[in-house]
Amino acid sequence: MFSGLRERLQSARDRLGASIGAAAAASQPQEPEKPAALEKEGEAPAKNPTLADKVRILIIDRELVVSEKDIADALSELEMTLLESDVALPVTDALIADIRAGLVGKHRKIGESVDSLVVRSLKSALLKVLGQGFDLPAYIRSHERPVKILFTGVNGTGKTTTVAKIGAYLKKEGFSVVIGAGDTFRAGAIEQIGVHAERLGIKVIEHQTGADPSAVLFDTVQYAIAHKTDVVLADTAGRFHTKANLMSQLEKIRRVMKPDLIVYVDEAVAGNDAVVRAAEFDKTVGADAIVLTKADMDSRGGAAISIAHTIGKPLLFLGTGQAYEDIMPFEPGAVVEELLGGAA
Ligand SMILES: Nc1nc2c(ncn2[C@@H]2O[C@H](COP(=O)(O)OP(=O)(O)OP(=O)(O)O)[C@@H](O)[C@H]2O)c(=O)[nH]1
User: Where is the stretch described as Disordered (predicted)?
Assistant: First the structure.
């Protein structure tokens, strides 16, 4: 998962570390500089600009100060790397600004290695854009049952498979689940969700192909209320946000079943397209959380890095394969560890 991005971040990490290291070596003062001339954190800039210009990195009193110039080229390369990895432009900008702020002008203990300094600032910047994640079992436990979850998204991104996977996951977490076969449009969709549900031992409410999906999902909610089922998972047909009639159908579904959560499903491999589509769905029918499927096939990682920050909604799960257990709750800390290794 995200192997390309991991490699690229590794190179950026090496490059930033090398730039800081080279600047540190080049600026070892011939004669000791006066600590009083240094900018201290939280204080006004040094009064003597000629000294500030001359000294790119100073190691005085066991501290190291990085200047903007030292890392300008490495940060430009990192910016290109992120954009090439399909990280959205505003997210790239936020990451670069945060890494710069995390490195430049701060006094660091020289006891810590340059690499750990770099990794710490990369990790902290990534954690800020990845957001908090979303603990679905905790959400369900703290809400009135049934908790109704409506799944939306474009065609073929893995929505139906995701509904089945989340059903299996929630069953394992101890919740009772009913699935509403709300994709009454695509031939074979009702059978497909039926097969999944049978394998998983989950009840499905279905009507015929071509039936009104709002009616199917209304019945599913009624079933859940009557049977004290914890969670309703509502599948829907894939659609593009540009199809006004299909979007108004989704609007009707929303009015009828009153979902507690609308989950937008797209595929990680779609990169920036997934981010743009999620924003459009959020604008038209709303989205409370995101699932990105096919993360196992995505080496660039751009959508996973960008989507929560761009639309301001948390990433709930990553789909990591075709089996039911191939779904993982999105944990920002774990993703950052995966991208930057266990170092620092
Ligand atoms: N590798 C991989 N494949 C996945 C993942 N999730 C779903 N798929 C596959 O993607 C394909 C499409 O999945 P569906 O669940 O049928 O997609 P859908 O969005 O319901 O399709 P529509 O009903 O047309 O909207 C299937 O072959 C799934 O097995 C995943 O996380 N990783």
Answer: 20-45
